[in-house]
Every structure is written in C-alpha cells, then in structure tokens.
Write a structure and sequence with these properties.
The protein is α+β, with helices and mostly antiparallel strands. The protein is 37% helix and 22% strand. Bound molecules: histidyl-adenosine monophosphate.
Length: 403
C-alpha cells in the first residue's frame, strides 16, 4: 500500500469540516477588514525565497523543497506565502500604481522540517498582506484581525509583541549584540556561533537553555530603538489597550524570517504542546524594494491552520437539506428527477437503493438532513410525495408541485 509522505496529511471527514469552517470564518473577517483574495503559484524561483526569507534563515538554509525542473530552472515549493504575494504585487506594477492594496490568501506551504505534533512538511496557512500603509494603526489592525478570528473560533491565545527597529536603529544594536555574544562565545552552542556571522539577532530565540541563561544580560532591542520606532511601539501598545487586546512584550521575539522591521508579533496557544505558535507576522517595509519594486510599506501575518484545527470550537451542526428516497424501482427515476430540480436551491442527497420507509428514515437520520422525502408507487399515482421534518418530527403528504 502506498501511504502519504512523512509530515504530509490528508484532510477529510471531521477534519475537513474544521478546515473549511476555519477558511470561511477567516475569509469573512478578512473581507470585513477590506482584504481581497489573491492566489499565487505553489512553485516559485528559488531566488525569490533566498532574497526575501533570507539565506541565513533555517527555512531557506535547511528546509526548502528545492529542485531543478525540466527547463533547468532552480525552483522550490513555497515555504511561506509573503514572498509570492510581494512578487505578484511588483509584477502587476501595483507598487508603481501607489495607493493601498490589501490581500488575503490560503493554501499549502512546504518546509522540510522534522515532523512532530503540530509541525508538518506540508501545512496550510491563512495569511494577509497589506501594502501602502506606513501607519502603525495598520499593524494594530492586523493584530485585531487575528484576535477577531481566534475569538470567533473560540480559541484562547497569548499575544507576544516586539519591535525589530528600522534601518536607523537596528544596525548599531546589532553591533552591540555581536560584541556581547563574542564575549561569551566559548559557552554558546554551535548554532549561535554560526548565527553571530550570519544573522546575530537570531541568537536571541535560541532554544538552548544554557545559551538563554547567558543572553539574559544581553542588550535589549527595545532599549535601543530610535525615537520613531519607540513612539510607534508605544502607540501600538496604546491602540491594543484601547481595544481590549492583552499582550506581553517579548524582547527575544525575532521571528524566523529575515524580512521584518519594526513590529513583530506572535500568537501562541498553551493548549497544543511545544509547537505553540498559531499565528505570526509583522511589518516588512524594506521587502518590496529588496525584490526590485518601488519602496512600499507593508505588514501582514499568517496563521497555521493545522495547529488551529484541534482548538476550534465547532458550532452545533444543524440539520440541513433533503434526503430523497424511492420505495420501489418505478419511483426511482422520478426521485432522481425531483432531486435534480431541488438541487437548484438546496442540498439534496439521494439513495439509489429502493427500500421501505423505516430504512429510508434511518439513512436520512445518519446524513443529518432536515427533511426525509420518500416516494413510492402510491404517491406516484397521486402525484404526491411523503415528507417528514426530522427536526420537529411532523409528517405531510404534499403535491409534487408544492414540494
Ligand atoms: P511563520 O511564523 O513562519 O510566518 O508561519 C506562520 C504560522 O504558520 C506559524 O505561526 C504556524 O502556526 C504555522 N506553521 C509554520 N510552520 C509550520 C509547520 N511546519 N507545520 C505546521 N504549521 C506551521 C510566515 O510564514 C510569514 N509569511 C507570516 C507573515 C505574513 N508575515 C508577514 N506576512
């Protein structure tokens, strides 16, 4: 038997209901915030991710599904959605058009990680990207949107916030941090030694406990922000407070992708084990320019659908639609015709096996429909159909034209 690849799951049955319920809820909320759907390819040039997510990130360094295609192009399956949306934004010349452009998307992402609970190799994200707004109110609006989605789905969360500074304050901070880390280089892990040269701020979220103990005394990014970044961060906190959104400031939150500046945030859940990040995002004002577009401020987030699925509180499933059954062979053709007409407006299931009323009712009950409608030779003669409302248990015989 051929099975699915490690870390790649099928989504069906109960999972599919949760999956589609999540997508429809998140879509509705993103649309209320003025976002429009965008779809980008699953396969892109590898260079796109190298230049955006960053060569020093784990995602690009270790986790890409990368290959040379039949045309000798170096391509890879997208590990995340932002880079493709930025590429599409520039390719459509929306950076030149100016104005505000807001997109949402959902789909499969691929990262060759070590699979474990909540960590897959093919997983699904729901994400949004906003272009053209440099106000920190847009950052707050992103956070409010995630909060709205999670609340609607009945999911509790902790929100962690940080600022990663800008071109003015990040480089001097980086130098201070490098100096600090080099002083304790004999006692840090191999990954951190490598990071000092490739991406020093990533040392701050090292998972190694003894490194973390050393970094307690490291200079803090939030204490080294320029006045603009610092004011923006204060404003962001104030907007969240005014809107009843609780947060924790986490000075070690650096995110695993290189394109961020200023606001960075992560939503975590304490109810799903070690892979606790359920959504993450932030501002990335330099990325459009970095991918050869006109400088355009941008901010966005993505949520991990599989991690959220087990947390969703599903609404009670209501009985819906019709079940149509025939009691004998002569009635079956008419039942099929009635079902076909009824599908213009309703969900209709039909059983092609002829059986008695009791058995039709049993099947209808299993299918969770609201009405069980059955037709036999008597009804055919009279031009009627027998209908039972499975909610209030009332029964009626209706003329076919009234049905
Ligand atoms: P990210 O933090 O890498 O950000 O991923 C966002 C979310 O995707 C995570 O919080 C997590 O829930 C889920 N996720 C990530 N990796 C896996 C995995 N291997 N298995 C299951 N779920 C996973 C981004 O991808 C950015 N593009 C977000 C963004 C959009 N920033 C600005 N705009």
């Amino acid at each position: 038997m051929i099975s699915s690849l490690r870390g790649m799951n099928d989504i069906l049955s109960d999972d599919y209901e949760r999956f589609t319920y999540f997508i429809s809820t998140a879509t509705k909320i993103a649309q209320r915030y003025g976002f429009h759907f965008i779809e980008t390819p699953l396969l892109e040039e590898t260079a796109l991710f190298k230049r955006s997510v960053g060569e020093s990130s784990d995602i690009v360094g270790k986790e890409m599904y990368q290959f040379i295609d039949k045309g000798e192009n170096d391509v890879c399956l997208r590990p995340e959605g932002t880079a493709g949306v930025v590429r599409a934004f520039i390719q459509k010349k929306l950076d030149r058009a100016g104005g505000i452009h807001r997109f949402f998307y959902h789909g499969a992402m691929f990262r060759y990680e070590r699979p474990q609970k909540g960590r897959l190799r093919q997983f699904h994200q729901f994400g949004v990207e906003s272009f053209g707004v440099d106000s920190v109110y847009e950052d707050a609006s992103m956070i409010m949107m995630v909060s709205d989605i999670l609340k609607t789905l009945g999911i509790g969360y902790r929100l962690q916030l940080n600022s990663l500074g800008c071109n003015a304050c990040m480089p001097p901070y980086r130098q201070k941090l490098i100096k600090f880390v080099k002083e304790c280089v004999d006692n840090i892990c191999e990954d951190c030694i490598r990071r000092v040269d490739t991406n020093p701020i990533r040392v701050l979220d090292c998972k190694n406990g003894s490194c973390q103990e050393l970094y307690v005394g490291a200079p803090k990014l939030l204490h080294n922000l320029c006045s603009e970044c610092s004011n923006d961060f204060d404003t962001l906190k104030k907007i969240l407070e005014n809107n009843g959104i609780e947060y924790e400031v986490n000075t070690n939150l650096v995110r695993g992708l290189d394109y961020y500046s200023k606001t960075a945030f992560e939503f975590v859940s304490d109810n799903i084990g070690s892979q606790s990040a359920i959504a993450g995002g932030g501002r990335y004002d330099r990325l459009v320019e970095f991918l050869d577009g006109r400088p355009t401020p941008a901010v966005g987030f993505a949520m991990g659908i599989e991690r959220l699925m087990e947390l969703i509180v599903m609404p009670e499933r209501k009985k819906e639609g019709y079940y149509i059954g025939a009691m004998d062979d002569e009635a079956l053709d008419l039942a099929v015709k009635i079902a076909h007409q009824k599908r213009n407006s309703d969900i209709v299931s039909i059983d092609y096996k002829t059986k008695n009323l009791k058995n039709h009712l049993k099947t209808a009950d299993k299918e969770n429909v609201k009405y069980c409608a059955v037709i036999g030779s008597n009804e055919m003669k009279d031009g009627t159909i027998w209908v039972k409302n499975l909610e209030d248990k009332t029964e009626q015989t209706l003329l076919l034209e009234d049905f």
